[in-house]
TrEMBL record:
One of its GO terms (molecular function) is ATP binding. Mg(2+) binds at T14. This is Shikimate kinase. It holds the Pfam family SKI. PANTHER family: SHIKIMATE KINASE, SHIKIMATE KINASE 1, CHLOROPLASTIC. Signal peptide: none annotated. One of its GO terms (biological process) is chorismate biosynthetic process. GO terms for cellular component: cytosol. Its EC number is 2.7.1.71. The keyword tRNA processing does not apply. SUPFAM superfamilies: P-loop containing nucleoside triphosphate hydrolases.
């Protein structure tokens, strides 16, 4: 079984995934890193040039191929659950863990993370806090449906989050 990490931007899927894979001595793969390597373009440039629909098609291709792996820890991008085929494949081939955080926590991590510029182009025309709240409201039912269980990340560091995940495995 693979372990898939899902959740909104900056809930820690990439950082927790890496650390968890280390602790479980399993290989780690980040779907966004794969997409960038395969297409040789940053997410921001891809979306600026071709739009979100194009990005979602590339993301689907990556997730589909990662679902054929075994025993990997796989960090997805925050919007992977928008495609029901991704959700179906992840549920069939692994355990799906939802990392959660409040809109305030997400906002503060997004504006502080150096990778935001290349990796997290705006999803809407709203200001960042409104975008987060509105998008969370739309996506929360999708994360909920996809996930086997959820972990709150607001008050814990990566190490604590890994330990809490390990307790649930
Ligand atoms: N539990 C946490 N506590 C504090 N900062 C965190 C935590 N998890 C992630 N971060 C920070 O948030 C930013 C985004 O983390 P990342 O792992 O890339 O999230 P995601 O892959 O979900 O977008 C990084 O700057 C990271 O250091
Ligand atoms: O929430 C989203 O729609 C996205 C999240 C990003 O990944 P992270 O969740 O790792 O930031 C990246 O896949 C892309 O910018 C789209
Ligand atoms: Mg990530």
């Amino acid at each position: 079984m693979n372990i898939f990490l899902i959740g909104y931007r900056c809930t820690g899927k990439t950082s927790v995934g890496k650390a968890l894979a280390g602790k479980l001595t399993r290989p780690f793969i980040d779907a966004d890193e794969e997409l960038v390597k395969k297409n040789r373009v940053t997410i921001s440039d891809m979306v600026a040039e071709h739009g979100w629909e194009f990005f979602r098609e590339k993301e689907r291709a990556v997730i589909k191929s990662l679902c054929s792996l075994e025993n990997h820890v796989i960090a997805t991008g925050g919007g992977a659950v928008l495609n029901p085929d991704n959700v179906k494949d992840m549920k069939e081939t692994g355990l799906v863990i939802w990392l959660k955080a409040s809109a305030e926590t997400i906002h503060s991590r997004i504006i502080q993370d150096i990778k935001t510029l290349e990796q997290r182009p705006a999803l809407t025309h709203k200001n960042l806090m409104e975008e987060i709240k509105e998008t969370l409201e739309l996506r929360n039912p999708l994360y909920q449906y996809a996930a086997d269980f959820a972990i709150d990340t607001d008050l814990s560091d990566t190490d604590e989050i890994c330990n809490r995940i390990k307790e649930r495995l």
